[in-house]
TrEMBL record:
Coiled coil: none annotated. Its EC number is 2.7.7.65. Gene3D superfamilies: 3.30.70.270. The chain crosses the membrane at residues 40-58. SMART domains: GGDEF. It catalyses: 2 GTP = 3',3'-c-di-GMP + 2 diphosphate. Residues 117-254 form the GGDEF domain. Keywords: Membrane, Transmembrane, Transmembrane helix. Pfam families: GGDEF. Signal peptide: none annotated. The keyword Lyase does not apply. This is diguanylate cyclase.
Length: 275
């Protein structure tokens, strides 16, 4: 109140606010009367100082509480982001789970259709994985899955590429803005990296190390087309790779949706049995 009185009177004295429009019309006269009484002025100033001394701790408490609220909000946001990541990832392999794959696949399909860009999918299955578990045990099997997932993440280095666990020992690699040629190069890179990694598998009928079979499909999506066709084509390629001897890649493009320049080979094998 004291501060308001002083400001109001000061404005009225300087003519900035008409005296009739002032909050305290008699403030000027009141201050004139105070000028004749130094003791009263000193008491009035002391009151203002006391008021300020009381307001400063309150302001400090308010600022402290505001900082704490902001820190708590940031902590909750980080915790929620962690929960979202956990809900979207496979707990064992640390890659996207099936639900996250379906979500991203839908978004990438629509974006590829809008931008008229190809979208490729690799379906990857560890060869003779049941035999691996029977030979080395399930804990070693889990380690094998994690090592293969690491290889896939290293091979798919672009930010937009998605590595996901599709089910069991089967994994998926979704590659936006990539046609058949690029997808086949990615598959070959995976084979080579696994060969270099040389995870022991003495009981394998294919090689002395862990290998994978890969089915590849690549399309130029159409917005209202059934996107599951891309998955079924990649699955068909995976089945053909297994039937062809495993440790190989088979590609089955869809000619109705694939880009014209990509549509030459109906099926290509990138690696022979035992390579």
């Amino acid at each position: 109140m004291a501060v308001a009185l002083v400001l109001d009177a000061a404005l009225a004295i300087n003519g900035l606010v008409p005296e009739r429009a002032a909050l305290f019309p008699n403030a000027t006269a009141f201050l004139d009367s105070l000028a004749a009484e130094p003791t009263v002025i000193a008491g009035f100033a002391s009151g203002i100082a006391l008021m300020l001394l009381l307001l400063l701790p309150i302001h400090h408490v308010y600022r402290t509480r505001e900082v704490r609220l902001l820190q708590e909000r940031e902590r909750l946001a980080a915790h929620n982001a962690k929960l979202v990541r956990q809900a979207a990832s496979d707990g064992l392999l640390g890659i996207a789970n099936r639900r996250e794959f379906e979500r991203v696949f839908k978004l990438e399909w629509l974006r590829a259709a809008r931008e008229r860009q190809p979208l490729s999918l690799l379906m990857i299955d560890i060869d003779c994985f049941k035999c691996f578990n029977d030979t080395y045990g399930h804990q070693a099997g889990d380690t094998c899955l994690r090592e293969v997932a690491k290889v896939l993440r290293a091979a798919a280095a672009r930010p937009g590429d998605l590595v996901a666990r599709y089910g069991g020992e089967e994994m998926a690699l979704l590659i936006p803005h990539t046609g058949m040629e690029g997808a086949l190069r990615m598959a070959e890179r995976i084979h080579t990296m696994l060969e270099d990694r040389a995870l022991p598998f003495s009981a394998s009928p294919v090689a002395k190390h862990v290998t994978v079979s890969i089915g590849v499909s690549s399309m130029l999506p159409v917005r209202h087309a059934n996107r599951s066709v891309l998955i079924s084509q990649a699955d068909e390629g995976l089945y053909a790779a297994k039937e062809g001897g495993r440790n190989r890649t088979e590609a089955v493009p869809n000619l109705r949706l694939i880009a014209p320049e990509e549509a030459a080979p109906l099926r290509s094998a990138s690696r022979a049995q035992g390579a």
